[in-house]
Write a structure and sequence with these properties.
Rossmann fold; seven-stranded mixed sheet; globular; binds S-adenosylmethionine
């Protein structure tokens, strides 16, 4: 009978997906400037989920420098889809647009500057996928707008649900008949923080 590898942390760290120079430079910048980005494991997961959905429209809440947007944008470049990503901080939004342009994804990813909940009210659905990565205390306020904007069967991914501020969101989602969801406590190398929860929810 086979056993789990001796040092799972080191083992899974060795399996972190490869990525190009630009993403690595963004990771380095995030480390130096303490910008909490999803890192290559969740990034790759977002890419895979978007491809599986053959996503035509993806909504992202919380752009920062555009690291996760690039993974979503890579998937959309292949599905001929589009990403709309929302960022409160104009300087971050400016930086994200520069990285997106450098990656050749300006036609695929649009960065909207402003407070996410307000911007969501101005958007029209349907979206195939939404990725939530703003202040955790705001997740609960973003839940109903995301339900309105996602198509039936659309996917909501919420990062950092291991934070106490996400508790009301977690409890509401778990009890809701509008969603079917699962929260996973995971080891996520190069994610901020590396041990955290990730929630996947299907809009019913
Ligand atoms: C965790 S970072 C996003 C990281 C990004 N998703 C990535 O992995 O590359 C959160 C970002 O959301 C922005 N933010 C926080 N609350 C927001 C809100 N209510 N509306 C829009 N943006 C918000 C912050 O300015 C910050 O840049």
């Amino acid at each position: 009978m086979s056993n789990i590898v001796e040092n799972p942390t080191a083992y899974f760290r060795s399996l972190v997906p490869a990525r190009g120079e630009q993403l690595r430079a963004m990771e380095q910048e995030a480390l130096t400037e303490e910008i909490p980005i999803v890192g290559p494991v969740v990034g790759e997961l977002l890419y895979i989920l978007a491809r599986l959905l053959n996503a035509q429209r993806i909504l992202e809440l919380g752009t920062a420098t555009g690291y996760s947007s690039l993974y979503l944008g890579q998937a959309c470049a292949e599905t001929r889809g589009r990403v709309v990503t929302l960022e409160l901080d104009p300087e971050m939004a400016f930086k994200a647009r520069q990285y997106i342009e450098r990656a050749g994804l300006s036609a695929t990813i649009t960065v909207e500057t402003g407070e996410a909940i307000g911007l969501l009210a101005q958007l029209e659905g349907p979206f195939d996928m939404a990725f939530m990565d703003i202040e955790k205390v705001d997740y609960i306020r973003a839940l109903a707008p995301c339900h309105r904007l996602l198509r039936s069967g659309g996917l909501l991914v919420a990062d950092n649900v291991g934070f106490g501020d996400a508790d009301e969101f977690n409890q509401t989602l778990r009890a809701s008949t509008d969603w079917r969801s699962v929260s996973i406590f995971s080891f996520l190398p190069l994610h901020s923080p590396e041990h955290d929860g990730l929630c996947l929810a299907v809009r019913l």
